[in-house]
Specification:
Blueprint (H helix, E strand, L loop, with lengths): L1 E5 L6 H14 L3 E4 L16 H11 L4 E4 L9 H14 L4 E5 L6 H6 L6 H20 L2 E5 L4 E6 L12 E4 L3 H10 L2 E4 L9 E2 L4 H17 L8 E5 L4 E2 L5 H14 L3 E5 L11 H22 L24
Parallel strand pairs: 1-2, 1-12, 2-3, 3-4, 4-7, 7-8, 8-10, 9-11, 10-12
Antiparallel strand pairs: 5-6
Helix pairs in contact: 1-2, 3-5, 5-6, 6-7
């Protein structure tokens, strides 16, 4: 099990810097922030942009992987996002995951594009969004012609450090989104049972997550992918509650969801008030009693290998996966 934390982009950098540095020091494998213009209950509260936040976080950390949770077509375009993703990954020296989602039709939609879209239209747009971004980040110069996006001969140079491109983490709970994740993603993301606006105790969501994982396996098989090659990330806090109530609840959640096949468990940085209200001391205790022992065990059992020499880009060409819609 890998462990991650979401840090809301709500603090001025003089304070936020401490959170990102501490997330790495505590031993989390990855840290994320929301890629939105504004967010639900915090609409009138401070809220900073994700790209400069992640760039700053990359500059003050050296080990932890960073990511967007999640970039959407709500106000992003594949061309401009591709340039930002390439730049972020370069600053982070490869420690970047591009989290992607269809968008939930919230405040960002109404601000940037008030067009009402059906679930099918949103799914169509998201499929093009992911496929166009994949093409931009894997080809030296790419073109795309779809219903929602079109561009011609766009270079993304020098390209990603990670080949053939940065990893994608695709959030999806519907059958079509899961098939898209099976085709394009390195990690599948779920926040729990969809259609809810309050958190259930995590133990009451296990059956729902198990059913989602069964459907994900079916989507992988339908697209010809080995299900074992797709990471499965559970984002807790919004729909899956109680994980960070105590060290014991965290350890129990790791066991329950790990048995289902979840490979990555993500919590939110504890806030002083709703949402994600919690105690930072619990997060620190989790790091001391759950994360750190796991690191020590891994250090004793996994041999250390010298990294390969040379620039990972030397002699390599990006390539397209060759898959259409």
């Amino acid at each position: 099990m890998r462990h991650g934390v979401v840090i809301l982009p709500e603090q001025r950098w003089s304070r936020a810097r401490e959170q990102w540095v501490l997330a790495e020091r505590l031993g989390f494998d990855h840290a994320w922030t929301y890629d939105q213009l504004m967010w639900r209950w915090l609409r009138d509260e401070p809220w900073f942009a994700s790209v400069p936040t992640l760039a700053a976080a990359a500059a003050v950390t050296s080990r932890i992987t960073l990511g967007t949770m999640v970039a959407t077509p709500t106000y992003r375009h594949p061309v401009t996002l591709a340039k930002e993703v390439m730049s972020l990954e370069d600053i982070a020296q490869g420690r970047f995951v591009c989290g992607l989602g269809a968008g939930a039709g919230g405040l960002d939609d109404r601000v940037v594009d008030p067009t009402e879209r059906t679930p099918r239209q949103r799914a169509d747009r998201f499929a093009e969004f992911v496929e166009a971004l994949d093409r931009l980040l894997t080809e030296r110069s790419s073109s795309y012609a779809g219903e929602h996006y079109a561009f011609e001969d766009v270079p993304v140079n020098p390209g990603c450090l990670t080949r053939p491109r940065v990893p994608f983490a695709v959030a999806a709970t519907g059958p079509r989104g899961m098939r898209l994740a099976a085709r394009r993603a390195d990690t599948w993301v779920t926040a729990g049972p969809p259609g809810r606006f309050d958190a259930l105790p995590y133990e009451k969501t296990v059956a729902d997550i198990a059913r989602q994982l069964d459907r994900l396996d079916a989507a992988c098989e339908a697209t010809g992918r080995d299900p074992a090659t797709l990471n499965r990330l559970l984002l807790t806090g919004a729909l899956v509650g109680g994980v960070l109530d105590s060290v014991e609840s965290y350890r129990d959640a790791v066991g329950r969801f790990g048995e289902l096949g979840i490979t990555d468990l993500v919590v939110h940085w504890p806030r002083a008030s709703f949402p994600y209200q919690g105690d930072l001391r619990v997060l620190e205790a989790v790091a001391e009693e759950v994360l750190r022992p796991g690191r020590e065990t891994a250090a004793r059992t996994v041999p250390v290998k010298d990294p390969p020499g040379g620039d990972p880009r030397d002699g390599e060409d990006r390539h397209d996966e060759g898959e259409g819609r």
